[in-house]
């Protein structure tokens, strides 16, 4: 395939994913009269808390369309590409809502058209802005060869998604009646007394890198590191605590122990950066520093993916992980009507974007099939396959597809902004005869 064909294929693939996610289980009935009534109701929607959650899901899904449209740009004319992405989002949404008018089990709504179109615009405009910022940072001071704000920002998104909808406690409580403020009042009362058993210790090693990367990004921008870590620690408290309070409105238990753990872990990571970032950069240089960053990132992804590190012992549960339904993209998320299904998409994508960006400038090997991205592709596949035998985790091809998308977008963003590979992150192995003559390779 030519480069142009690859870019067109990427756009077409994402459009196909959007159609699959929005038109699955449509159960159409081609009755024009009934379809007309449903279409008329679409222009007089009744808004509810459920509609707000659907809006977040729509923003996420069509935001991905905007991201793919810009990174797969054929012309490089950013403004026109943003406009195209918005128009495609509107047209695709109008098509989907029109087809849903023929379904007795789906609801067409002008609100969905609005949020879908807005999502496509925000995804495209945000990606265009990111490309401009990354391109502007080219040639400036950098610890890893790519702007640290790209790595820190993506990781921060993943952490905030976890704070808003924790992996193991994101299911809304059953039989909890009332609106969001009523649920919030009830769950705030139930948040006490505190319990040591509610401290999420497995989250601590996942959150420490967020503070470390944030200080690294500010240091690259010229901030004093002592000031930077205090700012990061303060901002983390101001953002993370309200997200935990939001749990109550979503019908999720509010646990102050978890909120405090998140804030303390991020603050510790920020303090560790101001304490050890300079010694680490003096100790590790060039490919050694990049190699350490890539391996540390890989370990973090394993920790994110294989929590709680306990094996399944029920062979029936293991066998159920390889059913055909687990190989249908977005099928598992479509069955959930909560905000987790939206934020999980953003989280999985954001977790792998930094690795793709690093491999763009420090590939483990520069030659061979998919040399730059193959390690990340295999890592994501291995982590997802591991879910088959890990307690409370479930194999889902959607997770692998999201991870690969994050890898590819991170790689494309860096490369489209003019960054080239500095070298190979893995050390070259010199032939034995060269070693004897004193040549030790790169």
Outline of the structure:
The protein has helices spanning about 5-25, 30-40, 50-70, 80-100, 110-135, 150-165, 180-190, 205-220, 225-250, 255-285, 285-305, 315-320, 330-335, 340-360, 375-385, 395-415, 430-435. The protein is mainly α.
What does this structure look like?
By secondary structure, the chain is an all-alpha fold. The protein starts with a helix and ends in a 6-residue tail after the last helix. Helices cover 66% and strands 0% of the residues. It folds into three domains: 136 residues, no CATH class; 142 residues, no CATH class; 148 residues, no CATH class. The relative contact order is 0.11.
Order of helices and strands: HHHHHHHHHHHHHHHHH
- Work out the helix count: 17
**How many E strands?**
0
Task: Characterize the largest beta sheet: strand count, sense, and whether it forms a barrel.
Answer: none
How many domains make up the 3D coordinates? Answer: 3
Q: Give the helix level as a range of percent.
A: 55-70%
The gross shape turns out to be globular
Radius of gyration: 23 Å
Question: Uncertain runs with pLDDT below 50, 5 residues or more?
Answer: 430-442
Mean pLDDT: 87
Distance between the termini: 34 Å
Structural class: mainly alpha
Strand proportion: under 5%
């Amino acid at each position: 395939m030519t480069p142009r064909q690859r870019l067109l294929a990427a756009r077409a693939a994402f459009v196909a994913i959007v159609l699959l996610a929005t038109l699955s289980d449509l159960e159409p009935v081609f009755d024009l009269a009934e379809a007309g009534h449903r279409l008329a109701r679409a222009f007089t929607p009744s808004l509810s808390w459920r509609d707000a959650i659907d809006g977040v899901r729509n923003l996420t899904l069509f935001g991905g369309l905007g991201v793919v449209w810009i990174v797969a740009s054929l012309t490089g004319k950013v403004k026109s590409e943003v406009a195209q992405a918005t128009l495609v989002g509107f047209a695709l949404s109008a098509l989907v809502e029109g087809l849903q008018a023929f379904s007795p089990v789906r609801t067409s709504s002008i609100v969905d058209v609005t949020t879908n179109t807005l999502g496509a615009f925000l995804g495209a405009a945000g990606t265009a802005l990111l490309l401009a910022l990354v391109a502007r940072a080219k040639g400036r001071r950098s610890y890893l060869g790519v702007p640290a704000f790209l790595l820190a920002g993506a990781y921060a998104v993943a952490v905030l998604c976890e704070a808003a909808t924790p992996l193991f406690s994101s299911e809304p409580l059953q039989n909890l009646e009332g609106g969001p403020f009523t649920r919030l009042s009830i769950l705030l009362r139930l948040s006490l007394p505190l319990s040591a058993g509610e401290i999420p210790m497995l989250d601590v090693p996942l959150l420490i890198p967020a503070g470390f990367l944030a200080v690294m990004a500010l240091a690259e921008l010229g901030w004093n590191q002592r000031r930077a870590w205090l700012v990061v620690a303060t901002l983390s408290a101001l953002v993370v605590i309200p997200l935990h309070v939001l749990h109550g409105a979503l019908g999720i238990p509010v646990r102050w122990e978890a909120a405090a753990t998140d804030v303390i872990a991020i603050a510790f990571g920020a303090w560790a950066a101001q304490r050890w970032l300079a010694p680490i950069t003096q100790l590790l240089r060039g490919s050694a520093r990049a190699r350490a960053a890539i391996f540390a990132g890989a370990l973090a992804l394993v920790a994110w993916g294989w929590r709680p590190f306990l094996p399944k012992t029920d062979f029936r549960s293991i066998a159920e992980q390889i059913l055909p339904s687990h190989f249908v993209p977005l099928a598992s998320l479509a069955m959930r009507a909560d905000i987790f299904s939206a934020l999980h998409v953003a989280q999985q994508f954001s977790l792998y974007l930094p690795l793709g960006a690093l491999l763009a400038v420090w590939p483990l090997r520069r030659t061979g099939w998919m040399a730059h991205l193959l390690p990340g592709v295999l890592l994501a596949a291995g982590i997802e396959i591991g879910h088959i035998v890990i307690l409370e985790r479930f194999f889902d091809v959607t997770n692998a597809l999201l991870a690969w998308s994050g890898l590819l977008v991170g790689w494309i963003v860096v490369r489209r902004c003019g960054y080239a590979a500095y070298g190979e992150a893995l050390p070259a192995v010199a032939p034995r005869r060269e070693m004897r003559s004193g040549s030790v390779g790169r």
